[in-house]
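Need tokens for this chain, all 507 residues.
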Amino acid sequence: MFPRMLPRSSVILVVVMVLVLCLIITAFNIWTLSSLQSQHFALFHSNPTGQSISSQSAAPKYIVYAKHPDSGYLKHVYNVMERDGYVRGDFNTSTDWDVMWAHDYPFKKIRDKMLKLKPGQRVNKFPGSGYITNKVNLATTGLKNVPQAFQLPKEKDLFLEYAKLHPNKMFVQKSNNHRGIQIEKISNLKLDAEGSFVQEFIDNPLLVDGYKFDIGLYVTLTSVDPLRVYVHDTDVLLRFCPTKYHPFDAEDKDKYVVQDDYLPSWQVPSFTKYMGDTAGFSFKDTLSAYIKTLGKDPDEMWDQIHQTIVDVYKSQEEHFTRATSHYPHKEAFFEMVRFDFVIDDQLNVYLMEANMSPNLSSAHFAANALLYEQVVHSVLRLVGVVGRSVTKALPLKPERDMQVSNKDVLVSPATCVTPECEGKSSCELQQCELCNQCLTKDDVDNLRRAWLERRNQFATRRIFPHPVTREQARTADKEQGELGDSNRKMSKWYREKCLMDRTWCDN
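Here are the structure tokens for all 507 residues:
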């Protein structure tokens, strides 16, 4: 027998209540899904990096000063920065940035911005770098491994006399505004052209399979007073002329001028066996291996190249120091420059130019991407921009001391505890000048930066102050008397660190 049925009106009421409840639950679920979708869109689309808003605001920030910065030629710089957690800020509106990557020289058009740098902000250019990257300035330094050059029209008569004494030499005319060069007869040279120079042409270059080439070294300046200079030591850039040098024809620039459409090293037969997928050697190791097959020592060539770079910086050191003095935080600046060399068939080296903002685009040769990213990473790691243990641009004292403290930079313990160095006038004595009581705040800050650079060298090598072995550290340094006071003390500090700690010695 069926149970007693509920009244019809009660059944309808229950059904209605159930339907209303279902509608309310459905509406709530739709609202919840919509909210989650909105949050997802805001997180991953309005912020392309995929970082939350709170983490993005806390991330270190870089800005870029360059023409057409989003056209791709700085892609590898951005890759290195963003892999280390940096986010890119807007150049025009950002003021709380940590690092500025300046492709263009920033000390003219945006000088006001440079004068307002905040403590802890870093810029990858040095005031005064034009003294070495300006073609006329560099060519007419008179330095040993820079081909003889004459500034025009000022040294026109000197050039004509030199050409008369050396009738077999060939010359090229260059200017700061013109990248190309071509060998010309003296009668065709424009000897009254302002802002140009005439330079001797090296007519006996070392050839590989008949091709002329140049060598590009990536050099980083981290300090000018005292001077500290490093090279990217694990690789270089090699570029070959696309046409064989002989039979020589001055009208065919592809035989002797390296241009954008250069011949890549891995297509040169004698280099292919080293650089192919099987062997996989770097540009630098390939060149060194080839030079050894000629019965020559590549280390002699590299030493010449390094010394030439040092000579260039030392020759312009006063200009750098004076230019940097106009800005409030000289520790803000660092700079990577590419020095281009040609070597002759006797392995003599010749510096051709220094590029303030070298090409870092792999658009033409995709295989160069790794080299460019390694170079950028090494530079930024050396100066503490990437790979930092403390991500703040301006760490607090305990955070700074955690990385390097005053005790870490002190040297010469046996000397500093002698009665001579504990007396009132001890700081007037050279042997006591690096003792704790004689160091100024600027001295300590500079030594701290040098200490951190040493620990961050990674793929770079210091070439000035000169590397020092344990044996060299024990003997008197002949160069000490030739150095200015700040460079002398800096060089002495490295020697004393080597004597205290073998890991600070070079080789």
